[in-house]
Amino acid sequence: MRTTRYGALAMAAAAALTLSACGGGGETEGGGEGGGAEAGGETIRVGIKFDQPGLGFDEGGSYSGFDVDVAKYVAGELGYTEEQIEFVESPSANRENMLANEQVDMIFATYSITDTRKETVDFAGPYFIAGQDLLVAADSDISGPDDLNGRNLCSVTGSTSAQRVKDEFAEDVNLIEQPGYAECVSLMGSGQIDAVTTDDIILAGLAAQESNQGQFKVVGNPFSEERYGVGLTKGSELCSDINAAIEKMIEEGAWEEALANNLEGVDYEPNAELNPPTPDDCA
Amino acid sequence: MDGFLSLFEQYDVAGAFWINIQLTFWAAIWSLLLGTLLALFRISPIASLQWFGASYVNIFRNTPLTIIIAFGVLALFGQLFVSLSEDFDLNFFRLAVLGLSLYHAAFVCEAIRSGVNTVPLGQAEAARAIGLSFLPAARLVILPQAFRGAIAPLGNVLIALTKNSTVAAAGSVAESAGLMKTMIEFRSDMVIPIFFTFAMGFVIIVIPIGLLTTWASKKLAVAR
After folding, report:
1. What is the pLDDT of residue A21?
2. Domain B15-173+192-219 has what CATH class?
3. Measured distance CA(A255)–CA(B37) in Å, rounded
4. In a domain, A124, yes or no
5. Spatial CA neighbour of B68 closest among B38, B107, B19, B12
């Protein structure tokens, strides 16, 4: 008898946990479908990065960064107030799934538009064009990827940006992969690595962090083109409204202001030939 | 289906798993050596050694492996400039083996101790009675029987080690978990097949280990 009772108790506990896990996302169901100006009391769920200073960063409940500012502006144009925006963390590997499962309505998370991704998700934008670049110590003599032979280069696990440098520019570069850019920057602080590589705006965000202020510089010699788009569920109707909002943001100067605010104190200019970009036509 | 097969042309999946097997192999050897030594400490009659063995097990068993591996790169390599090899990549491989060995030695120690508990007390008393001191008694009487009784739990540790070798991705070793991240990043149209491939890869590696240790533990069990 005793064992049965404990068994039932365990089952009940397990069931309760499962149920509560499902409950979290359900309340805001259908938030995006409202669209338009008369969104009323609905919320819109926006996927951002929580760990990228200058782009999408969780500062203990409030969020800052360029992606966040663009998301707020676009959501405003779609008829949502700031209180109606619900920011959700969307790590790189989960972005397509979160859109496919409608856990978020749109994603602003350094999300490059690629043909492979277009097969599973829709994109609005681009709202920014980044390029792969290098972050080096402020007094470093490295001026581009060709100078990296025999040096140590850091990037994050799962990105091929470091491999590209090795394949295309500097055969004898030593590559080190870390779980996050913060680890790379900490290794560079002690001098064990010479450069960190990824998109220039991400590097600028890292350099702009208070604890890194003045220690590092972005080389400013981008060697790829990453078109940051707004990730949408396949077949979403928001695309053209979002593009109109992005165009308006650029026209009004709010785009430039957001960029300047978030990357204050870093010697970094986005690639002027490509920025600000014109959004693509919606499919 | 063609798209799925193209994954294997584009990425060296087998090569990444081979790195995991190498990590597992070296870490298994080092953790077995260290774990046996720790088990000897714990069953020894010397109080300070017992204390050391118990402290080691409690500290390393209760520290997340990710933190141990990250410590290897960020502290040993990053701040203390420790280098285990002239070769840049081999250095990280060895740091990862070091981290995996230190962590799993604690579990090996406890597995062997459970084996020691299967040896009847009379065996130790008999060894003493014929004049063997602690080390010869352990080497000739206790440990041979303890290992045979500990094969199943040691097999469990080996299986855990095989899967834990993916944590080495945090230590800049290009193994399967890192490759999976890369593949998901660039082949977002194939997320589920990619997950399935890596899950199956580990099942294929781990099932023979389980079968082998179950068979060996039956075959080699001390008949009493």
Report:
1. 47
2. mainly alpha
3. 64
4. yes
5. B107
Domain ranges of chain B: 15-173+192-219
Reduced to 3 states, what is the DSSP secondary structure of residue A30? coil
**Does residue B74 belong to the interface with chain A, where contact is any CB pair within 8 Å?**
yes
CB < 8 Å to A116, chain B: 186-189
Which one-letter amino acid corresponds to residue A88?
V
Cα B53 → chain centroid: 18
CB spacing of B178 vs A190 below 8 angstroms: no
Residue A38 has pLDDT above 50, yes or no: no
Option in B74, B172, B185 nearest A159 (CB): B185
Inter-chain contact B184–A93, Cβ cutoff 8 Å? yes
Residues A88 and A32 occupy one common structural domain: yes
Spell out the residues 6+ positions from residue B35 whose beta carbon is closer than 8 angstroms to its own. Answer: B104, B105, B106, B107, B108, B109, B111, B112
Identity of the residue in A152, A159, A183 whose CB atom sits nearest the CB atom of B74: A183
- B-facing residues of A in 134-193 (CB < 8 A) are 152, 157-160, 174-179, 183, 186-187, 190, 192
Let me know whether A160 and A77 are in one domain.
no
Q: Where are the alpha helices (DSSP H) in chain A?
A: 2-26, 66-77, 95-100, 115-118, 161-168, 181-189, 200-208, 239-252, 254-262
For the segment B132-152, what is each residue's pLDDT rounded down to a tens digit? 999 999 999 999 999 999 999
* Chain A residues within an 8 Å CB radius of B178: 157-158, 177
How confident is the model over A73-110, as pLDDT tens digits? 999 999 999 899 999 999 888 898 899 999 999 999 99
Contact B74 A186 (CB under 8 A): yes
Residues A141 and A210 in one domain: yes
**ipTM of predicted complex:** 0.78
